[in-house]
Amino acid sequence: MKSLKKLISLCLLAACSLGIAASMLPICGSSQESYGNLKYQINDNGTIAITGCTDNNVESVVIPESIGGKAVTEIFPYAFAHKMKLKDITIPKSITKIEGAAFFNTPWLDLKIRDNPLVTVNSIVIDATKCEGDIVIPSDVTSISDYAFSRSGVTSVVIPETVTEIGASTFSGCSALKSVKLPNSIQNIGSTAFNKCRGLTEITIPESVSVIENHAFFGCSGLKKVIIENPECSLDGNSVFTTLGGNTGEPFIGTIYGNESSTAHEYADKYNCKFLAINEYGVIGDANGDGNISPIDVSMIFTEYKKLYRKEKGSFTANQNKLCDLNGNKTINASDASSVFSIYKKNYRRSH
Fold first, then answer.
1. Which of the following CATH numbers is that of domain 1-115: 1.10.287, 3.80.10, 1.10.8, 1.10.3470?
2. Helix (H, G, I), strand (E, B) or coil at 321
């Protein structure tokens, strides 16, 4: 069961990355059972997943709550796709997961979109490809299907705390997307989740996120700032972030912000990305508060050091002291200025 789902996911991800139309995808098969004209499989946990329909001319489908005493909880990717006469579907409350494009290219989905372009079923956003502008996802939504917003015209999205995952290609190709607010409930960001979101300039990955899969921000040419709050967040691969042509392994020209000695720092060093360390007060070494490190910061720190060396009253605020005391000796000295200059120099080299 797990191997089939993995194979289907790989087929979908390959199609997204290579630009293959959904209608050209092969159906990934395995031993399946039938219930009327429905095809299904038994999950490892004993529940039922609907995998397809044998009748290409079906007009109405009733998905049962259970089959053989086992609860029906899931609908597979493309299970009912291209059923060109399908206008009526009954989906029971037992369904808690609807995979990407389950109802792609059906009259039923078209009717749903006309009623509301943010199509939800059982608190699952199953399609938002026709949404435009600023979107606030309702607070009762618990999940978003893969590909749900793919190539839509959304410009900003606010996701509620009830959602725990951004799946594969959820916002892929949303070139107008400029802002996404991720709640501190998201645990995983899937592969190609924000693929080619060229209008996205910055994003904060909340502390709850434990995994960012490879190609999650593939080809995001406008992305300049990524804040990763979880110091142990796993960044899975060499192309989690790419900005130019979207080629595997190309450098990310933006800046990654994260904790010192974090996995984000390790990723930046390994793949030659610019990195700035942060703490609860801001960017470490950022004397002028612009969120960056430049020669201006070095000059300000050295000037502060000279004042203190001469026994003059320093001009730094308490916050500046906490950001610029890099060696932790509770004062500002030449060592701090030197350390900040080293940070600037390293990032400068990585961007040129």
1. 3.80.10
2. helix
Domain boundaries of the chain, sorted by first residue: 1-115, 137-247+260-279, 295-350
Neighbours of 180 (CB within 10 A): 21
Residue predicted with more confidence, 301 or 11: 301
Helix (H, G, I), strand (E, B) or coil at 166: strand
Find, among 24, 121, 119, the residue nearest to 75 by Cα.
121
Contacts 24+ apart (CB under 8 A), 110-119: 111/87
- CATH code of domain 137-247+260-279: 3.80.10.10
Phi, psi of 312 (to 5 degrees): -85, 165
pTM value > 0.90: no
Same fold, 1-115 and 137-247+260-279: yes
Residues 162-198: tens digit of each pLDDT? 999 999 999 999 999 999 999 999 999 999 999 999 9
Residue 164 vs residues 39, 123, 211: alpha-carbon distances, Å: 29, 13, 12
The answer to whether the beta carbons of residues 238 and 271 sit under 8 Å apart is yes
342 alpha-carbon distance from chain centroid: 32
Q: How far apart are CA 21 and CA 293, in angstroms?
A: 44
The whole-angstrom separation of Cα 55 and Cα 57 is 5
